[in-house]
Amino acid sequence: MRTPVVAIIAIGCALTLSGCVTSADALPGVAGGAAEYPEWLDESLNLPTAELTLLRDDGEMLAYASRDDDNWCVVAVLAPSPSGNGDDWGASASCVPLAIFADRGAIVSFSMSGRSGGAHLLPPGYNKALKAGWIRVSPQLAVTR
Fold first, then answer.
1. Is residue 131 part of a domain?
2. Which of 50, 94, 95, 102 could form a disulfide with 68 if both were Cys (CB 3.0 to 4.6 A apart)?
3. Could you tell me if residue 45 is inside a domain?
């Protein structure tokens, strides 16, 4: 009886150590990036920077994943408009604890100067329906415009 229990524990440990078991604490393909925010972004905003990873840049909105202590964060950065004078950019971030992230992810929206959008950082295995207007652009990200 002891052998099957030991074997199950050993297999579980091996899978965990090899990365085959995912959790909201380790988001595949997201954490550990060496991204930086654009130079024009005001550093005084105090946006999260730990493990900053650029998830998407469509020329108008940049979406990042980051960590803040034990939280997962999603950051949406609105680039200056081509017709503006360079100061019409915006940024917004939302950080959530691991338990909340594992259930529904982290989501942020913005609206300024007649432009709006949002980013939804999705946890591994997320299969819930997205709200109207949101489009899944990768396994880890949905956006709205």
1. yes
2. 95
3. yes
Answer whether residue 4 is part of any domain.
no
Range of the domain at 125: 27-144
pLDDT band at 145 (very low <50, low <70, confident <90, very high): confident
Residue 15 lies in a domain: no
Looking only at Cα atoms, what is the longest distance across the chain?
73
pLDDT band at 19 (very low <50, low <70, confident <90, very high): very low
Please state, in angstroms and rounded to a whole number, the distance separating the CA atoms of residues 138 and 119: 11
- The values of phi and psi at residue 9, to 5°, are -65, -45
Q: Taking all residues of the chain, what is their mean pLDDT, rounded to a whole number?
A: 80
The rounded distance, in Å, linking the Cα atoms of 43 and 40 is 9
- Given a cut of 60, is residue 121 above it in pLDDT? yes
Strand order in the sheet with 115-121: 106-112, 115-121, 141-144, 135-138
Q: What is the CA radius of gyration of the chain?
A: 18
pLDDT digits (tens, 9 = 90+) for 88-103: 888 999 999 999 999 9
